[in-house]
Write a structure and sequence with these properties.
binds flavin-adenine dinucleotide, 407 residues, 11 helices, nine-stranded mixed beta sheet, globular, 29% strand, eight-stranded mixed beta sheet, alpha+beta, single chain, FAD/NAD(P)-binding domain
């Protein structure tokens, strides 16, 4: 039996696990990263993947500090400068404009595979990181501080991190419960071409059935996230292309004119979920393994990257104080620092979802008033933008410090 020794072993090399590996590897920790799927390295020119994320300034700072942002920029990132949100059930409307808070943009739309690939390329230059892929983490032995892979190899470390996504097998093996509920909504995602100019603006219309978002990408195209009931999203995903385009044009109130073309469509079930504990002695959860959130405000991976940056910081501080990676004192500091913020964001998005996804006329009135007020009160409007950019509240140094790279 092959036993390999590390300071930290990370199960899951998606965006969050890879960011954590880079952050720790750069600090000289010996890291083993296990990923079951080999990341995509090439794709046809001009193709935009179905899975994109709106990355905040805090996430951009983390990627910049990890050296990955210029690689992402070379692969393709799409800044957006404004956001328009309106309610189908009232006259409520709110606009956000980066110029009002003196920022160059409100964030960037980035394909998930671009973020992951840039981090994997970065890892290639970090000697203290060893990657195992395609390899599946199969058994967790918390007392023995080890993770056994499907092929029989055993990875031993003071700290094992579950970055293995929403259904986290490692979280299950550790016996950590996750509470939450399935939303009565799924999301259809696709890349579409509207007739009108998207003006580097993210557009979101709240319907009683769920929000419809248009995220601006390249060549005038938009990535859409169309949330609705499971039955309706199944129907939409199977509609004839011409009929899908017609319904999308109508549902968007032609805000971008007629929708002329759509690429492949996929459906994702939406769920709110939160792990009761983020840590156990020798184990930590990060990213979707710890929390899953409705995509309506595009915060999932942004929270996950803050988890990664915070955990890395706690481990560095622990090491500086002479402690080994996995010491429960450092893990508890990580948990304390992230849990409150994550719960607040989960709760806020859940409230938004409930407030907008219903037909109650009184709530409609309240929504209309609330949105219009928030639109007109500059302090409130600016506060929303700074929150969404991740510029408010406690942040780990990786999410703040810039190494002088271009924004
Ligand atoms: C429709 C939709 C739109 C979204 N839009 C946004 C947005 O605009 N902005 C935003 O911030 N977030 C968004 N999100 C959320 C975001 O996609 C997730 O928060 C993010 O992908 C979580 O990253 P992660 O690395 O934690 O988990 P994942 O991306 O799920 O990665 C987990 C990795 O672990 C690997 N893995 C799993 N099990 C094992 C195992 N046993 N052994 C080895 N490897 C394993 C998997 O192969 C995978 O690569 C959206 C989500 C959805 C569904």
């Amino acid at each position: 039996m092959t036993i390999l020794d590390f300071d930290v072993v990370i199960a899951g090399g998606g965006m969050v696990g890879s960011a954590l590996a880079c952050a720790l590897g750069r600090e000289g920790f010996r890291v083993g990263l296990v990923e079951s799927r080999e990341p995509q390295r090439v794709w046809p020119q001009g193709e935009i993947d179905l899975r994109v994320s709106a990355l905040s300034r805090a996430s951009q700072n983390i990627m910049t500090n990890l050296g990955a942002w210029p690689r992402m920029a070379a692969l393709h990132i799409y800044p957006y400068r404004r956001m328009e949100v309106w309610d189908a059930g009232s006259s409520g409307r709110i606009s956000f404009d980066c110029a009002r808070i003196g920022e160059p943009d409100l964030g960037h739309i980035v394909e998930n595979r671009v973020t992951q690939l840039a981090l994997w390329q970065e890892m290639e230059g970090i000697e203290s990181i060893e990657r195992f892929y395609p390899a599946r983490a199969q058994d967790l032995d918390l007392k023995g501080h080890s993770l056994r892979l499907e092929d029989g190899r055993v990875l031993h470390a003071g700290l094992i991190v579950a970055a293995d996504g929403r259904d986290s097998p490692i979280r299950g093996m550790a016996g950590i419960e996750a509470h939450g509920w399935s939303y009565d909504q799924h999301a259809v995602v696709a890349t579409v071409t509207p007739a009108g100019d998207h003006c580097r603006t993210a557009w979101q219309r709240f319907l009683p059935t769920g929000p419809l978002a248009f995220l601006p990408v390249d060549d005038g195209r938009c990535s859409i996230v169309w949330s609705s009931s499971p039955e309706e999203t199944a129907r939409l995903s199977e509609l004839e292309e011409i009929e899908f385009l017609r319904q999308l044009t109508k549902t968007s109130e032609e805000v971008l004119g007629e929708i002329l073309a759509v690429g492949p469509r996929a459906v994702f079930p939406l769920r709110l979920q939160h792990a009761l504990s983020y840590v156990l002695p020798g184990l930590a959860l990060v990213g979707d393994a710890a929390h899953a959130i409705h995509p309506l405000a595009g915060q999932g991976v942004n929270l996950g990257l803050l988890d990664a940056a915070t955990l890395a910081q706690c481990l560095v501080e622990g090491r500086n104080a002479g402690r080994q990676a996995g010491d429960i004192r450092d893990l508890r500091r990580y948990e304390r620092s992230r849990k409150g913020n994550n719960i607040a964001m989960l709760a806020a998005m859940d409230t938004f979802k409930r407030l907008f996804s219903n037909h109650n006329p009184l709530l409609g009135l309240a929504r209309g008033l609330g949105l219009n007020l928030a639109d007109r009160i500059p302090l409130l409007n600016h506060c929303f933008m700074r929150q969404a950019l991740g510029l408010e509240g406690e942040r780990p140094p990786l999410a703040i410090r810039l190494r002088g790279m271009d924004l």
